[in-house]
C-alpha cells in the first residue's frame, strides 16, 4: 500500500514527481532497498520563493523493506538548500510484538536551520506546518491505498519464506521495539511496560487525564456561566493543570479562563499547554505584566498618534477594538518611542482586553473569553512596509501569540488596498493557523454589503469614519513630528527593557570630520541597504569602495580619527594619505541631504572588498558673482557649533544569494511621508517623495 504513492500521489498535491536513483534487491528477495529523488511544491509565500530563487524543492527518500524482519524503514533528507537547512526524517512500520494483527508506525524528524536569508523564523513555521499536515494525512493516505487493494481483491500478502529448506528461527531474542499502535492497546500490553510515549493513541495515555475521576469535577453552573461548553476530558485537563500549578508554581495562579486559553491553543494536550503556560507565567513575572495597567502610563505621543482604541462590543458581546492602521505613522512611533514602549503599549491593550472580557462575562451572563478587532486599512501604502517597522511588528506578533493565545475571537480587516497582499505575505507566517481562520478581509466598500459589518456589529455602534452614526473616540493618528524623535542613546536609557536591541545609531558630523561606517562584502552582488534621518544641518552622503581595509579608528578622542560627543559618535576611516581613484573609488553619486529629510536606499555591490558609507558636512558654495566669502560663511567659520550635523542611521547587508540577480542597483530616495511638517517642508520640496518599492 505504501509503495503505491510513487511515482506521484494525487492525495499529496505538493508531491509533484519522483525518480528512482538507486535500487537493490537481495538474492533471496528478503531485502529490497529503493532510493528516490522527490520533487515537492512547498506551500510557501511567493515572496519567499522569489527570494530563495526556487519553485520546487527536492528530497532524497530511501525505503528499506526487510521481509525477513517484517519491517519497512523510510529515511528522507533535503537536497535543496542542504547547506542552509538540514531536514532529516525517519519512519518505521513494524509488527506489534504482542499482536501480529497490529501494525505499529513510528515517525521522527529533525529540523536545523543554519541560515535562510533572514527568514529563519518564517521557514521554521512553514516547515512545522507542512510536517504537521503530513502527519495528519499519513493515515488517511495509507487507508486509501489499502482500500484500493481490497477492491482489487488483494487482502492478504503471504509471508516471505527463505528459498532453502532450512529456516533459522530467531525466536530466542525478544528485544522489544517502541510500539505505536493506532488502536486500543490490550491491558496486558500496558502491564508489560508500554509507556504513554510509545502509544499514538493519546486519549488512552496515562499522562493525559481520564474523565470521571472523583476530584475531576467542576460545578456545572460555574462551567456554563464562566467557561462555556467543556467535555469531561477538557474539564479534567483544566483541573489537572490547575492542580499542578497550585502544587509547583510559587507565583500568582492564573484564572481558569486563562488556563483554558492555553489548553485550547494546544488542542488540550496537557503537556504542551503546561510548557507554554509556564513560559508565559515566567515572562509575566520578569516584566511585571500583571501590574502594567496600574503602574504604567502611556506616553503622550501614543495617546495622540496611536490610532487605536476600545469601542463598545460586537453582537456576540465581545469587546471591540478599533485600529486605524492606515492612518498611523509607524515609523514615527518607532523613532519617537522605541520598540520597548510600543510593545508595552500593545501589552497594556491586551491586558485591558482580558479585563473587559471579565466585565462582559458578568454583564451578559455568559462566558466571553476573547475580543473582536476591527482594522481599517484606508491609507495603507508602501511607507508602512518600512523594514525596521515591519520587524518591530513581527516581534510584537510573536510576543502576543506566545502570551495571549485564543484571545482574538474575530479580526475584521476593512478597505484593504492593493499593497495589503505584500504586507500579508510578510506577516502571515508568524500568525497561528487557528488565529488566521478568524480573519475576514474586505476590499474597498465590500464591508457595507451582505456578509459585511452588519453581520457582526450592531448598526448603532458602527464608527462614523466607516459610514456609521456612532462617534468613535479613537485618535486619528497622523504624522509624528520629528521634533519628538529620540536618539538611540535616549532610547537605551529607558528603564523599560522588554528587549534590548536598538535599531538606530546616532552620529555627529563635523566640518572636516565626516562620520564613516565600514561594511565588508565577501560576495559580489550583495545588497547594502540604509535608512537615515538628518536631524541637524545639511550633509552629503557618499559610498566608497576599497580593496584594502582601512586602519581602525584611533581611540584618542582628541585625535582626528575619533570624536565623541554627548549627541553621538564620530568615526573616520579613510586615511588622510589615501587618494580618491588610487586607494579607493566612489561607487554612487554624492547625495545632498537637507536638515529634516529621511533617506532610504540600497546599493548592489559589484565587487567584494570594503565599502565605506560616509556622511559629510555640506558647505554652501560661495556666491558665483564674487570671489569674496559670504557673511554667513564667515560667521559659520567662527562658530564651532554651527559646524556640527547630526544623523540617525540604520544599515543592513543582504547576501547575494537572497536575490539571485533579481534586483538591480537601487538609488537613494527621500521619503515624503517622514518629512517635517510646516517648519521644514520647504527644504525638501525639490526632492522626490516616492519611497523605493521594487
**Counted beta strands:** 23
The CATH C-level class name of the largest domain: Alpha Beta
Q: What are the low-pLDDT stretches, counting only 5+ consecutive residues below 50?
A: 166-216, 495-502, 555-567, 623-641, 658-694
Largest sheet: 6 strands, antiparallel
Helicity range: 25-40%
Can you give the mean pLDDT? 76
Estimated structural class: alpha+beta
CATH architecture label name of the largest domain: 3-Layer(aba) Sandwich
Number of domains: 4
Domain GOLD: 500-653
Organism: Sagittarius serpentarius (Secretary bird)
GO molecular function: RIG-I binding
Domain PRELI/MSF1: 1-154
Describe the structure.
The chain has 694 residues and is α+β, with helices and mostly antiparallel strands. Helix content is 26%, strand content 24%. It has helices spanning 46-52, 120-151, 187-191, 220-227, 232-248, 256-265, 270-286, 292-295, 300-305, 330-364, 387-403, 420-427, 433-436, 488-492, 631-638, and strands at 15-25, 31-40, 57-66, 71-78, 85-95, 103-113, 308-313, 319-323, 371-376, 408-416, 439-443, 505-510, 515-521, 527-536, 539-546, 562-565, 568-571, 585-586, 591-593, 598-604, 609-617, 644-654, 669-670. A hairpin with a 5-residue loop joins strand 7 and strand 8 (319-323). The two termini are 49 Å apart.
Which descriptors apply to this entry?
alpha+beta, 15 helices, 694 residues, disordered C terminus, 4 domains, signal transduction inhibitor, five-stranded mixed beta sheet, CRAL-TRIO_dom_sf, globular, Helicase, Ruva Protein, domain 3, SEC14-like protein 1, immunity, Phosphatidylinositol Transfer Protein Sec14p
Amino acid at each position: 500500500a505504501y509503495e503505491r504513492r510513487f511515482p506521484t500521489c494525487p492525495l499529496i498535491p505538493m508531491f509533484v514527481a519522483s525518480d528512482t536513483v538507486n535500487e537493490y534487491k537481495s538474492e533471496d528477495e528478503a531485502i529490497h532497498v529503493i532510493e528516490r529523488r522527490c520533487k515537492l511544491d512547498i506551500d510557501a509565500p511567493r515572496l519567499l520563493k522569489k527570494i530563495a530563487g526556487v519553485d520546487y524543492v527536492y528530497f532524497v527518500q530511501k525505503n528499506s523493506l526487510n521481509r525477513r524482519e517484517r519491517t519497512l524503514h523510510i529515511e528522507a533528507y533535503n537536497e535543496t538548500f542542504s547547506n542552509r537547512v538540514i531536514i532529516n526524517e525517519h519512519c518505521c512500520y513494524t509488527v506489534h510484538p504482542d499482536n501480529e494483527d497490529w501494525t505499529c508506525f513510528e515517525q521522527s524528524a529533525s529540523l536545523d536551520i543554519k541560515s535562510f536569508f533572514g527568514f529563519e523564523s518564517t521557514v521554521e513555521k512553514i516547515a512545522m506546518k507542512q510536517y504537521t499536515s503530513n502527519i495528519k494525512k499519513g493515515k488517511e493516505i495509507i487507508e486509501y491505498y489499502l482500500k484500493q487493494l481490497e477492491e482489487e481483491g488483494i487482502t492478504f500478502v503471504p509471508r516471505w519464506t527463505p528459498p532453502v529448506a532450512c529456516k533459522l528461527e530467531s525466536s530466542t531474542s525478544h528485544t522489544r521495539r517502541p510500539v505505536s499502535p493506532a488502536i486500543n492497546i490490550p491491558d496486558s500490553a500496558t502491564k508489560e511496560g508500554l509507556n504513554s510515549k510509545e502509544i499514538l493513541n493519546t486519549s488512552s495515555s496515562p499522562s493525559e487525564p481520564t474523565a470521571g475521576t472523583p476530584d475531576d469535577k467542576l460545578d456545572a453552573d460555574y462551567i456554563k456561566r464562566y467557561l462555556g461548553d467543556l467535555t469531561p476530558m477538557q474539564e479534567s485537563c483544566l483541573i489537572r493543570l490547575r492542580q499542578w500549578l497550585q502544587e509547583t508554581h510559587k507565583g500568582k495562579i492564573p484564572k481558569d479562563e486563562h488556563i483554558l486559553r492555553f489548553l485550547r491553543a494546544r488542542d488540550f494536550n496537557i503537556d504542551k499547554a503546561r510548557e507554554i503556560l509556564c513560559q508565559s507565567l515566567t515572562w509575566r513575572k520578569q516584566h511585571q505584566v500583571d501590574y502594567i495597567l496600574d503602574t504604567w502610563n502611556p506616553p503622550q505621543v501614543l495617546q495622540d498618534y496611536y490610532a487605536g482604541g476600545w469601542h463598545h462590543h460586537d453582537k456576540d458581546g465581545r469587546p471591540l477594538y478599533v485600529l486605524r492602521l492606515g492612518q498611523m505613522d509607524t515609523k514615527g512611533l518607532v523613532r519617537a518611542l522605541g520598540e520597548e514602549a510600543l510593545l508595552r503599549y500593545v501589552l497594556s491593550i491586551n491586558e485591558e482586553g482580558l479585563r473587559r472580557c471579565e466585565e462582559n462575562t458578568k454583564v451578559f451572563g455568559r462566558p466571553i473569553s476573547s475580543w473582536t478587532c476591527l482594522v481599517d486599512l484606508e491609507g495603507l501604502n508602501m511607507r508602512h512596509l518600512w523594514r525596521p517597522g515591519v520587524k518591530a511588528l513581527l516581534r510584537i506578533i510573536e510576543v502576543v501569540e506566545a502570551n495571549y493565545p485564543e484571545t482574538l475571537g474575530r479580526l475584521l480587516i476593512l478597505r484593504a488596498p492593493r499593497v495589503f497582499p505584500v504586507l500579508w505575505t510578510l506577516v502571515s507566517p508568524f500568525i497561528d493557523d487557528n488565529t488566521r481562520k478568524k480573519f475576514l478581509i474586505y476590499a474597498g466598500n465590500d464591508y457595507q454589503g451582505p456578509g459585511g459589518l452588519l453581520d457582526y456589529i450592531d448598526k448603532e455602534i458602527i464608527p462614523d469614519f466607516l459610514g456609521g452614526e456612532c462617534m468613535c473616540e479613537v485618535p486619528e493618528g497622523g504624522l509624528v513630528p520629528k521634533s519628538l524623535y529620540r536618539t538611540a542613546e535616549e532610547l537605551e536609557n529607558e528603564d523599560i527593557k522588554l528587549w534590548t536591541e536598538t535599531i538606530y545609531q546616532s552620529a555627529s558630523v563635523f566640518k572636516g570630520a565626516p562620520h564613516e561606517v565600514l561594511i565588508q562584502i565577501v560576495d559580489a552582488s550583495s545588497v547594502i541597504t540604509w535608512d537615515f534621518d538628518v536631524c541637524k544641518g545639511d550633509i552629503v552622503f557618499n559610498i566608497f569602495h576599497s580593496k584594502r581595509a582601512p586602519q581602525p579608528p584611533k581611540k584618542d578622542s582628541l585625535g582626528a580619527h575619533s570624536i565623541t560627543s554627548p549627541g553621538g559618535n564620530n568615526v573616520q576611516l579613510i586615511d588622510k594619505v589615501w587618494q580618491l581613484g588610487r586607494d579607493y573609488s566612489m561607487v554612487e553619486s554624492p547625495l545632498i541631504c537637507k536638515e529634516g529629510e529621511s533617506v532610504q536606499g540600497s546599493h548592489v555591490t559589484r565587487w567584494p572588498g570594503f565599502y565605506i558609507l560616509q556622511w559629510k558636512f555640506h558647505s554652501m558654495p560661495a556666491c558665483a558673482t564674487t570671489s569674496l566669502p559670504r557673511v554667513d560663511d564667515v560667521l559659520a567659520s567662527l562658530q564651532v557649533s554651527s559646524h556640527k550635523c547630526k544623523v540617525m542611521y540604520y544599515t543592513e547587508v543582504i547576501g547575494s544569494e537572497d536575490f539571485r540577480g533579481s534586483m538591480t542597483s537601487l538609488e537613494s530616495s527621500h521619503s515624503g511621508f517622514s518629512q517635517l511638517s510646516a517648519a521644514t517642508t520647504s527644504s525638501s520640496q525639490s526632492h522626490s517623495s516616492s519611497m523605493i518599492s521594487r
